[in-house]
Amino acid sequence: MSRSWRSPLLVWTVGGAVTIALLTAGDRVTALVELAFFLLLGAALSPLPFPPSSTERGARGDSRRDGRPVVHWRPGCRFCLRLRLVLWRDAGRVHWVNIWRDPEGAAAVRDVTGGDETVPTVTFPQAPPEVNPDPRRLRARLRAA
């Protein structure tokens, strides 16, 4: 199983157990609220909110050709999720690389950050990379391009 699905599966399992316990106790309303919370939290921690990821090599090549930046991310990263939510419709204007699935992508992030895997890291074709950039500024930059 992919490493990126471990956190959401754990959250969903705990949510299921809490829901069953609440239903057993006869508290249906709280059980439904808790179930909805755990389902949404698990979905947010999963790779679902992100467009399909590319490999580092593929994303770099595409970025050179089309001028779009490369965003390195990983599931479970709240800063990556925040970036994705702010970009919303503009998320297709970047190339996404999941560093947990692509060792070359993880190595590229370590090169930029001095050895750690801080994400999101955004690499532009003709500009210096940015670590955890301001999502609104990045969105404005994408829309201006």
TrEMBL record:
<dbReference type="InterPro" id="IPR002109">
    <property type="entry name" value="Glutaredoxin"/>
</dbReference>
<keyword id="KW-0812">Transmembrane</keyword>
<keyword id="KW-0472">Membrane</keyword>
<dbReference type="InterPro" id="IPR036249">
    <property type="entry name" value="Thioredoxin-like_sf"/>
</dbReference>
<feature type="transmembrane region" description="Helical">
    <location>
        <begin position="31"/>
        <end position="50"/>
    </location>
</feature>
<keyword id="KW-1133">Transmembrane helix</keyword>
<feature type="domain" description="Glutaredoxin">
    <location>
        <begin position="72"/>
        <end position="123"/>
    </location>
</feature>
<protein>
    <recommendedName>
        <fullName>Glutaredoxin domain-containing protein</fullName>
    </recommendedName>
</protein>
<dbReference type="Pfam" id="PF00462">
    <property type="entry name" value="Glutaredoxin"/>
</dbReference>
<feature type="transmembrane region" description="Helical">
    <location>
        <begin position="7"/>
        <end position="25"/>
    </location>
</feature>
